[in-house]
Design a protein that fits this description.
18% strand; seven-stranded parallel beta sheet; 25 helices
Amino acid sequence: MTVLGDKLTPLLGGKTATALAEALDIHTVGDLLRHYPRRYAERGELTDIAGLEIGEHATVMARIEKVNKRRMRNKPGWILEMTITDGHRRLSCAFFGNAHQRERELKLGKTGLFAGKVTAFRNTLQLSNPEYQMLDEDSESTVDDFLGAIIPVYPAASGMPSWSIARCVRQVLDTLEPEPDPMPAELLASYGFVGLFDALRHIHRPPDQGALDAARTRLKWDEAMAIQLIFAQRRHSAGARPAPACPPKESGILAAFDKQLPFDLTDGQREVGEHIAADLSTEHPMNRLLQGEVGSGKTIVALRAMLQAVDAGRQAAMLAPTEVLAAQHARSLREMLGELGQAGELGAAEEATKITLLTGSMPAKERKQALLDAASGAAGIVVGTHALIQDSVSFAELGLVVVDEQHRFGVEQRDALRSRGANDTSPHVLVMTATPIPRTVAMTVYGDLEISALRQMPVGRSPIATTVVPVAEKPAWLDRVWQRVREEVQKGHQAYVVCPRIGDEPASDKNGSDRRPPLAVLEVAEELSGGPLAGLRLGILHGRMPADDKDAVMRAFAAAKVDVLVATTVIEVGVNVPNATAMVILDADRFGVSQLHQLRGRVGRGSVPGLCLLVTETIDGTSTRERLAAVESTTDGFELSRLDLELRREGDILGAAQSGKRSGLKLLSLLRDEDMIAEARTRAQEVVEGDPSLDEHPGLRQMVASVVDDERAEFLEKS
């Protein structure tokens, strides 16, 4: 008999076990049984071909519509060309070699499963040399493979198609011996869940739709509960040490700052500010996520929180993901504070504090002074990159840590800052993101944090028009792109051109597809300066430039001494140049939806409407083009975050790789299972309050380990 922890080699043979391990990272019985079907097909029901992605390994059930055999042009042999259809869209298949045998098997009008890597050929989607399994009722092997009317279709890989995985699963299930259920009996009874082993059996070989639904519900709950248990433990751990209380003062630097503000705070800024002020006033460490649209005014909310900490005699640290952004934050904080940020200088206000910038590439003399300012307490606010959490950096009285763009930092870095409080205290932590997050994603990805959102935009923000430029279909549009950039510059404005790569490193494509290398800043800048943008003042900015050079370029661009800035995503967050009105994003398909939304937030920051042009060579009908169309359709980041989630596979939200890698979420839908996630959060909190280490719940501890392995748990925390 077989148990979940058994290795697969004795059961399936060395060749098959090795193929599963290499192609899909599947090593044990448990790994295989948690490699759930991606979807299910019913006999006679064809797969929707729309939305396939170039580079992915897809399995489709389709009908053969056309077959054509022809000789190869440049070498001996034949090519068998075939068109398959789902009744609405078509997909081409090309077979090289042994065409005669395939011609006998692949008959017009027949239906089958076809599996292979999706490529592009002459601007159409194609499967090259796909593996196939015809659904022929007269075929003994096919009937054996697909006993029921509901056919599982698995995430597959080259050399390990869906039907081969189904065969392996069947062999394992035939010898599987049930073990004690990890879920406490009272939980099973209260929700009416089926047992784990019935769920595992029916998710792969459902006798009917009812059994499949029950199996999915149970396995979804396991995922939701496992993740929420991790976060409940993290919340418990984060609150174990007290925090320094920072109550507001009636007359201090915060009151003076509010008095000199040249504009009114939005209702949202005031409301969120009150929540943060209340959190800072207690000895329980604040752990709050502040999410808001690009330009919604998060920085001023964070600054007011830092001033409240300074008023209480504490220091605040602001952590930024890049040196460019750290320097920009330090500059903008000084500008907002004016004389209130000039402590130690002539003309400083009585309540003033000092703002110190600390980055890894500062000259030795400046760095030494910045370290002294932090350690002595002379600096009330210290702004920096990850250099702030190195062992050589110490603070006198760290009371608050503000982390900008939380998704760029690992949990170890955040925890390192949490441990920097004085006298065995933990500083309060405020993390910020300009990527709006649906509530269920926030509960799942930021489960150890309280959530605040700024949805209201400050007065004065200009609209941004976004257009997809499909150069594969309309190459002439690219000329018009550069004409539009020239027109903006002629009006006295400036523009960004964003590329995915720098150009001084070997080109590689993470998707492993046959596409050309991503466009690079250094190459594009050279082509533009000698071609369509000749005569304009071009600047270059990327992450591997020396800090002084980056700062000089940004200062020149801000001073309108540069017309067009050709850059990587180093400008993605925090860069504020109101005169920049246009942005061209080249190879836009190589960026995520949230990243595109962040990038275009760099324009439209002044009184003139912004323009964002998404240049892509991807083919219409792919899921990538759907994502670009979503960005084109709305500038509401909260709506876009939901659209993005609907278009992406659920596991991708937690950073899972494409098919072939284990994912933290396989069945749980962060949009459709909101009630289940909320219920699991409540239950997990109850369990952890009474048993923080889960010593009294070994089954739940085991479930956490099996559903969310160590690597995945670490990623969840880093997210």
